[in-house]
């Protein structure tokens, strides 16, 4: 084992709170399992530390409480409790085996065999375990796959997927995060063969896994494979992997990954798609608003082959704010022939980042003072005034503002024009 790996494992096991958990459950076979072991061996950051124990949940609860550790029964029906120590928490799961599963939920019984527990996990690289003394256990060839950066199902791939259809998306997520080279052919074939089972998954799980895939280092390559295999149909929007790839190259030139913006590059073709994606993936209201707003900006600049002018940038900055204007600019650049490092687009992004949004030097009260009555007419006049102020270049001179207010009051009410909010792929 390399010195760096040994050091990472020592750092993992030397956490004071983890020492307390091992001490509290002394006499029971307890190991660190799953992602914490995998990431430590890869030299990746370790966030959550999960443990497995050869004891029933009641024993875990009793011993932990006796040691003064707070116990939260987060999934006790499936053998999982969370032990809380100050600012640290650990999920401890009793060894178990599935008795019955429908691809979403499983009935389990508890056991004491770590080798059998490893066999029921999803991928070989997630089935490694580590005891308090630093001994590493590998029952399924996970160490070899980890060294090869290969994501491979344990046992027969289609059977593993049939136990939980979320494993289809997890296969692509872990391949995007930790894999190198071609995807495991057996795993890919099984995902395609069992893809109909994804209809059993909740929209929340689909959304969470999709965003994790899009945040991964190999997201572009993996979503292109998924798209070609028909595994993105659950988005209910035609995927655009090429634009997603170009956006990733663009973000690499700037601040790095942005999963929601990557989702927009992959699947947002119009403002209406924000609602479709929100429904399909059960996104939050804030995520829906961000998608819709960046869609408005992208629609305004659709088809641009070079960066918008300062006046155009200032208009979208005023209408939608810096975040949405920068998002929309990134989408437009990603579908344009401009390179990721294009100086014009880079300068435009910096302008949006650093320029304060224009503040209108007028309000509804100015129109009311000139005789406009409250109601629909006032709203229409205010929109006319705002549009005229934008066209005039956001002036601040009081005389100019007064003239614009007078003009807005004098024009006969009419329905305000709306901008076209959809755009389609440019021809190739």
In short:
By secondary structure, the protein is of the alpha+beta class.
| Average residue pLDDT | 90
Which H/E pattern describes the elements?
A: HHEHEHEEEEEHEEHHHHHHHHHHHHHHH
Principal-axis shape equals elongated
In the CATH hierarchy, what is the superfamily of the largest domain?
Answer: Beta Polymerase, domain 2
Strand content: 5-15%
List the helices and strands and how they pair.
Layout lengths: L2 H11 L2 H9 L5 E4 L1 H8 L7 E4 L3 H10 L3 E6 L4 E6 L2 E7 L1 E6 L4 E5 L3 H6 L9 E2 L5 E2 L4 H7 L8 H7 L2 H13 L6 H9 L9 H12 L4 H10 L12 H12 L6 H9 L4 H10 L3 H16 L9 H25 L8 H12 L9 H5 L7 H16 L6 H13 L18
Parallel strand pairs: 2-5
Antiparallel strand pairs: 1-2, 1-8, 3-4, 4-5, 6-7, 8-9
Helix pairs in contact: 1-3, 8-9, 8-10, 8-11, 10-13, 11-12, 12-13, 12-16, 14-15, 15-16, 16-17, 19-20
